[in-house]
Description:
By secondary structure, the protein is of the alpha+beta class. The protein folds into two domains: 5-114, Beta Polymerase, domain 2 (2-Layer Sandwich); 119-236. It contains ten helices and four strands, in the order αββααβααβααααα.
Amino acid sequence: MAFDKQQIFQEIKKCYTAIFGDALESVYIYGSATTDDFQEKYSDINVALILKDISIKNLIKARDCIKLLRKKHVTAPLFLTKEHIIDSLDSFPIEFLNIKTSNLLLAGEDFFEGITFTDRDIRLQAERELKGKLLLLRAALLENLDKKKILSTVVINSFTALMPVLKGIVFIMKSDIPKNTSDIIRKSEEVCGCDLSSFQTALKIKNRALKFNFEDFISFFENYITAVGQLANYVDKL
């Protein structure tokens, strides 16, 4: 059967509205599924639900939907309340900026439309994320120097986690945030003056569009660490 993303979106909407009813305030798709970056074979469909009640007793109702939709590459939702979002904007602004800038509202109120962010909060989280990833990348390289498969997974996971950070950097610099990943990298390179060619390479690795021999991969990994370090230094000075 052909992959029909729009049909899956409607199944998501139908399943969660049936389960939660009036307690469900918003249903969002966010991330790559809302852009041209989506890869049918490899990408997941990310869901965020805004509910009036996120007690475990209430959330357990979602387990059948989660199980059913997981077969169609739909992840378990982010369960949120309006209050939680507002109270967390100073702690996790980048996650919410990521949702705001790449979402599709399937049902309910577009709560993210009215959310605003401060440069200070975005900058603090961006610095924390970049410096944390820098430590992890160095350790991963030294611990797995002869294990290319493990290091490839490290690259993919770190790259995925850092893309919202790049959005945050673009936001701080008062530039429009592009929709597609490659354009976000180019815009980040433009605003910070860093060489992020290794990020474009990491995107190709994530999309299974590039293969390296071992020596070239290690050289790439070193360049990738250098680029993350340059970004960390740039954000530190903002």
